[in-house]
User: What shape does this take?
Amino acid sequence: MSAGRVCLILLAAIATVGATSRPSRDDPPEYVATRTGTAIKIDGALDDASWQDAAWTEDFIDIEGTHKPVPPLRTRAKIVWDEANLYVAAEMAEPRVWATMTRRDEPLYKEQAFELFLDPDGDGRNYLELQVNPRNTVCDLVMDKPYRDRGRADEAINLEGLRSAVRVDVDKGWTLEMAIPWAALKRLGRESAAPKPDERWRVNLARMRKDAPDVKSPLPRGLWVWSSQGAVNMHLPERWGSVTFSATTRPAN
Assistant: This one.
């Protein structure tokens, strides 16, 4: 075999290895949350300096995975942290922002809402589900285990010190900011202190989307997520992504 032929075979093999080694969007994604050195004003605007250097997640995909159509509306999020709080920001394109529920712990997922799931120790037990809708209504609950294991939702909890804010442009979309005190997460079986640097949590983010009943729209009802579940079921913690809390701190201005 000629030297040229050998080189072509080697190059083809290298290209194949490179292609198969790339993570699929259907694999649980990873995100590195940087530590912020400046205070974040929770007003829904996402214009604080701390957000500017934080990376966006990948655009959300269908809950069942990439074999389903790409969502027609963009959804993405950012996460940062400090000694006091976990901060989450989300941006959702939406030509018809709509929500009616205004009471705490109503089933916000039935309209339009953003959802955050947290499982600090990754054992699929005692995990948080937090929902916020465009009216800044909150639903927070803790699952002792997934529904498939006959889990029960404890809606009696209210995250003490939780702050959230929403900005709405009715014809374009809505943005959301949340600050969740570490001390409010004791119910998840952890200490009230901030995570240790490089600590990793199992996390998922989701967006529920539908139109008002009296609106005829070509846009579909959607359940779009950061980490695909492979089924229409958000309560599969082993399919969630992971967030690593980096010790890297953004310098104060």
Observations:
- The CA atoms of residues 51 and 78 lie 7 Å apart.
- The two ends are 63 Å apart (CA to CA).
- Residues 6-21 have pLDDT under 50 and may be disordered.
- The longest strand covers residues 200-209.
